[in-house]
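During the no-cost extension, the postdoctoral fellow (Dr. R.K.) reprocessed legacy sequence entries with the updated structure-token encoder. One reprocessed record is reproduced below for audit purposes.
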Amino acid sequence: MGLFDVGGNDPILAAAQFRALARQVLVLYAILVINAATLAYNRYGTAPDWLTLGVPLGLFAICAVRVISWIRAMRQPPEGAAASKQLQATKLATLGLSIAFPVWAAALLADGDAVGSVHVMFFVTVNTLVVMQCLAQLQAAVRVILAMALPMSLYYLIFGDQILQLMMIDFIVVLIGMAITQNLAYRDFCRLVGLTVENGRLARIDALTGLPNRRSFVTRLEAAIARAAAGNGHLSVGVLDLDGFKPVNDSLGHRAGDDLLRLVGQRLQEHDLCWVARFGGDEFGLIIEGDVDLDALGKRLCDAIGQPYPLSAGSARIGASIGFARYPDAATSADTLIERADFALYHAKARHRGASACFIPEYEAKLRDGAAIEQALRRADMETEFSLLYQPIVDVMEGRVEAYEALARWNSPSLGPVSPADFISVAERSGLIQRLTQILFRQALDAMQTWPAEMCLSFNLSSQDIASHESLAALSRLIVESGVAPGRILFEVTESGLMRDLVDAQRALVQLRTLGVLITLDDFGTGYSSLSYVQRLPLDRLKIDRSFIVRIGEDETSLNIVRSILDLCRHLGLRCIVEGVETSEQMRVLRAAGCRSMQGYLFHRPMPAADLAGFQSKLRLLPDLAAGSPKEAAGGVGAGESSIDRDPIGLCA
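Re-encoded structure tokens follow.
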């Protein structure tokens, strides 16, 4: 690049130079005009009018044109080539004014005395230094000024009188010093612009995968929405979450997990089906422009993610679930589209992991209901509005109750009875679950004070309870304060809750076990069901999910699965509980398979603490129980039971 080239090959630097000059160039022209006006006034009457009036007015007009040009450009600062063009015009204007003002000033020297000559030279030198200072970020213009000023200075240094010679010596020294310091400052300016650009790039890029991050995703989505709105077009937003990433991360190590995330990002980009960003963790965002078959796209992406990954620590295989939201059907703003795609993802995971779901209008009611529940939950007096029902876990071999599972119920003053299926998930998403857990656990411990000494409590914990040191400490404190023997407490945890972070879950369960409490793995068989983590976790019991029990009397596959789990428990030294037992036939088949701990409506529906004593006094021995009908057996559920009791969901399940 030449000494006097603006350097338009760096559009970002050009835009930064324009922004820096815009704050100074108007000051430059103001100083030039004021200094020229004072010099013309001083020489008025001693020099010809065309020199003191005509020429200055012409120079002022040129300055005014440049000022107007800059003001217009500053209204919408140019970028790239437009910024370079404006800088090129500034350099040319500097060249012209660097010639015009000194030549005009030199013409005034012929008609003045020594004092007037000093004034003229003062005008020339001060203006030169001011212009250099104001144009410091445009080194091409500074070099133009130097190219004009040095020959003039040398001329007066050789042919001027002694005063002018001394002034020129000082001027040249200052001129060269300013040129050097400004050049150094300009290099720092360029480095700062480069660092700013790099920092901006890093702020928009995910450091692990190299993909755009959530901030870039929102910016890109807003631009895509603007294009779609202008052209009456369509687009869709996707939120993709990996299934089974935590087990890989925990078993093969965090480095393998990082490599896996990078490979997932590459695989999503290779298919060139959408614009991809990483939101964080194992979640990715997708932008799909145009009217696309989202079901087919979701299947292709899920199939692609589901292929094996070769890692240095070993091969891994994971899945993916995706939620989609269409513009403008689902929403018209970026934030709302992402929110609704995320809700569709939640629906996809709840319905069937490893598949995709698209937001539909029916979800809108669920969103509104969820928002209403969250607001009511935040306003709720949890101490009085929430209560517990208890469902017995029966030892069918001895015909006795071995434990009661505490099940949360909420009667909201504004919403009425709210299903645990609704308020538990909202409490988890809103961060209120830990407080609710502690309040209800205290209620359960208070109820245990009247129970027989051998009676146990089964209490559900959420993944947030397990992940929080504060929550575990609070639960431990409540146990100690209650005086209840820790061995009478069974904490139930779900597979899905544990698999979010197996390492932390293992640490938390070990911490609980040090108190002497027992740990039950709930809903076994519906999640990952990995034998490796069952062995690694400090478990005491497994609870077989009710989905295997519904057809156990007529479905050999279900029975074989239950037998396999029972054999697993025997080999691992774990006790097995079967939930969802509703008929005498189911109980008979399970008992024949070797199961003795059962829970379900055959024995009793969930009941208030005040009814437990009466229930225990009526509980019959197994032969009588097996011979009776479900309704006759210990107050079992009749045909009129409510839907909330037909599907009890334990606290934090």
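The CA atoms of residues 565 and 571 lie 10 Å apart. The chain is about 60% helix and 15% strand. The remaining legacy entries will be reprocessed before the final report is submitted.
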